[in-house]
Amino acid sequence: MEPHPDRVLIFDTTLRDGEQSPGCSMTQPEKLRMARALAELGVDIIEAGFPCASRGDWEAVNAVAREVQGPIIAGLARCVRDDIELAAKALKDAERKRIHVFLATSAIHREFKLNMAREEIVRRAVEGVKIAREYCDDIEFSPEDASRTELDFLAEVVEAVIEAGASTVNIPDTVGYTVPDEFGELFRYLRRHVRGIDKIRLSVHCHDDLGMAVANSLTAVAAGARQIECTINGIGERAGNCSLEEVVMALATRQQFFKLTTGVQTNRLYPTSRLLASITGQSIPRNKAIVGENAFAHESGIHQHGMLKNASTYEIMRPESVGMARSALVLGKHSGRHAFRDRVKQLGFELDEQELNRVFEEFKALADKKKELFDGDIEALVLRAEGGAQGPWSLVSLDLESHSGTQCNAKVRLEHIDGRIVEHLASGDGPVDATYKAIEQATGIAVTVRKFEVHAVTIGEDAQGEAVVYAEQNERSYRGSSVSTNIIEASGKALLEIINRIEQLAQSHARSGVDRRPAAARGGL
Ligand code: KIV
Ligand code: ZN
């Protein structure tokens, strides 16, 4: 059934446009976890990936298509038969599917990237849509770099793909170049000049190079678009994409102005944003609209005074409406299981009994080390517990000896899932270096650390520290993270997560008998 005309569809491309940006790549289980959270959030369409990009991308789209129900699952393809067939195969088992085909239309792309004349572009776009229609009725077409395309030519392409069978036409501001007035006019122009445009859904897809992705998307919606393409936390190529939480809350908060609705459960926005941040290790700036730590904090005395009298003096949204529970200090070591369960729920997490018991045990252990536990502590515990995939190595103990001006010694004791206990002592320039050398020598797996970050999860001297490590081995990039009140332990566990991933990968390749090292490492390409 066609949704109400006043309903704007939310097309989430976190797993495709978002995931392809540096530092945001996700493993298949992480993509699945994110896709489930997006379905719970209530997005209408999940773009799960670009199946022809790599075997991993294809498998991830296929897994999301098989396992995630509710939203339409989309896969991206160029206007090329092989790409489209790969996308169609990956999406085969989806309850509801969409093939999204794209081709650049601007003069710059035509001349320098594609080396194609206008007629060739129209011919290929039409052919792409027709091929996709052989596999699926729900077809979206995007004229890449639309905002820098000559208006008359853009209208010609859009009309041709509608005639060929596209049911959604998406207008991307690929390089984040347009400004609201100009973009609104582009949508009005298309609506005036394209035959058949009322029969399809117009969509908008903005990048944030000039910081206007959300403003441009809202202008497009005011000018008739009824689908917004966006990503959680605004992740995406270069400066990112239109941020889902911002655009959705703008429509909700200014409902009387826009007179439009979405299907998003806004109280899932904050937990979903935190989940993505924990998966990618990309922290959210404190002042980020809607989901930043300061988004609902009031520091100035005048503001606090107004807030106490009436929250609407300085607050246009309630933190609860985005799922940010308002409570600074939460629980301590005397808190019971009941209170803990309530708090977890208020923070937007659903845990089954077994998971709850496990996290509650960890909470108790943490409460023994820290006097006060904040929401951030509980979130960190839950998000790690949901992460699943552990082993084969785990850290049993870590002893450090450090004196200023001399090398530091670290002794690690590790346990392997096969029962082995390995102990190793190493020296290094500081505790982290010594710990990393000891872990690498104990496991026999060496990596090149490219980036290392530590930040406090909450406030206070006894705050837990989150360590995030980016490393490479054999031309592959890995990311590991861990949280602890002891930041050296967190750093060691973050490295161990990477080492575990490398060992798991090696084992699965050994089982399948396939050499899946990157082509260059195999001597190819
Ligand atoms: O930015 C862009 O043009 C895209 C298209 C593939 C929709 O991501
Ligand atoms: Zn894009």
Task: Please tell me about this protein's structure.
The protein has 525 residues and is of the alpha/beta class. 42% of the residues lie in helices and 20% in strands. The chain has helices spanning 14-18, 28-41, 55-67, 81-90, 107-114, 118-133, 151-164, 180-193, 213-222, 244-253, 255-258, 269-280, 301-309, 337-346, 353-369, 375-387, 431-443, 487-512, and strands spanning 9-12, 45-49, 72-78, 97-104, 139-144, 168-173, 201-206, 227-230, 329-331, 373-374, 393-401, 408-416, 421-428, 448-456, 465-473, 476-484. The strands form 4 sheets. Strands 1-2-3-4-5-6-7-8 form an 8-stranded parallel barrel, surrounded by 8 helices. A 3-stranded antiparallel β-sheet has the order 11-12-13. Strands 14-15-16 form a 3-stranded antiparallel β-sheet. 3-methyl-2-oxobutanoic acid binds next to strand 5 and strand 6.
CATH level-1 class of the largest domain: Alpha Beta
* Separation, N- and C-terminal Cα atoms: 49 Å
Question: What count of helical segments does DSSP give?
Answer: 18
Strand content: 15-25%
CATH topology of the largest domain: TIM Barrel
- Corresponding CATH architecture of the largest domain: Alpha-Beta Barrel
Determine Rg (CA atoms, Å): 25 Å
> How many DSSP E strands?
16
* Mass-distribution shape: globular
Which key terms come to mind for this protein?
alpha/beta, 18 helices, TIM Barrel, 16 strands, disordered C terminus, 525 residues, binds zinc ion, 42% helix, globular, 3 domains, binds 3-methyl-2-oxobutanoic acid, Double Stranded RNA Binding Domain
